[in-house]
Amino acid sequence: MECKSLRESGEELRAFDVAYFAVSVDPLEEITRFAKSLEADYPMLADADAAVAKGYGVLHPERGFPRRWTFYIGKDGKLLHVDREVKAGTAGPDMARRLAELGVAKKGS
Fold this sequence. Notes:
alpha+beta, Glutaredoxin, two-stranded parallel ribbon, 5 helices
């Protein structure tokens, strides 16, 4: 649902001067199949060993899957915001709204 929302908001998100992607702890083959079935128009990255999820502190310790968080990182590498209450169905519009609130430039600005 979250990935579909991002795809449906792609035009709005790509208006900002950002790179956005999804990261999954599922195996690459599974992510590839899922991305194709969804017709995702953004990268979906594999973190099969969960090293990235662990590094960002999103891996749920008992359940072994990552929490649904969005990290906003500036071009300078500084963390701008962490959304720990992502709503899967509105993730795309919510992300675009947050980018605007953070003052992230639009392309061509």
